[in-house]
Amino acid sequence: GCILVILLLKYVTLENAGLKGKIGNLIKNNIGYVNDYKHNPGMTLKIAVVSLFFHIHNSMAFYLLLKYGVGFDISFAEIYIVLTLTNLISILPISINGIGVVDGAFIYLTGLYGASYDQSLSVMIVARALLIPLSLIGGTYYFLGSNNSSSHLEN
After folding, report:
1. What is the three-state SS of 25-61?
2. How much is the pTM?
3. Please, are residues 62 and 127 in contact by the beta-carbon 8 Å criterion?
4. What is the C-alpha separation between 152 and 37, in angstroms, rounded?
5. Separation in Å, CA 113 to CA 71, 93, 102, 131, 144
6. Contact yes or no for 113/127 (Cβ under 8 A)
7. Residues 81-91: tens digit of each pLDDT
8. 3-state helix, strand, coil in the chain (%, to 5)
9. How high does pLDDT run on average in the chain?
10. DSSP conformation letters of 74-87
């Protein structure tokens, strides 16, 4: 999937694809972001490392909540798989902040490993209780902060 996207970004231009208007501009902006990463390999590496640490710590938090919070024995690799799939599902533009969609996906996927509905729901309630205030802080900072969009990446 990633290889196909890279090839499409490299060989298909917006004019050839016939994409104009809002969707064309959105794709053009995203291609600009991809080019920023391509031209700044040092920054790309830093972002990849921060992202890796974020996902490992996020997985560890869910692992600890499941194992010690609700008493469900799951391996770290299994919870990492569940959270990876849940994160992929969370990008679907179905609801605000993925509320309901992410929770349902997490409950379903952990259920495949044997977790009960109550165990999974309890973990998601705690996760949401922590996520919503953080999202509000980030949203407030975004809307009140300056919107300087002259550069996609800053060194």
Report:
1. HHHHHHHHHHHHHHHCHHHHHHHHHHHHHHHHHHHHH
2. 0.66
3. yes
4. 9
5. 14, 27, 17, 24, 43
6. no
7. 999 999 888 88
8. 75, 0, 25
9. 80
10. --HHHHHHHHHHHH
Query: Which residue is listed with tokens 């959105």?
Result: 26
Mean pLDDT of 19-41: 70
Nearest in space to 155 (alpha carbons), one of 49, 45, 26: 45
Three-class DSSP category at 95: coil
Q: Quote the CA–CA distance of 45 and 41 in Å, as a whole number.
A: 6
* Radius of gyration of the chain from its Cα atoms, rounded to whole angstroms: 19
- Joined together, the tokens standing for residue 137 give 């802080």
Structure tokens at 116: 């009960």
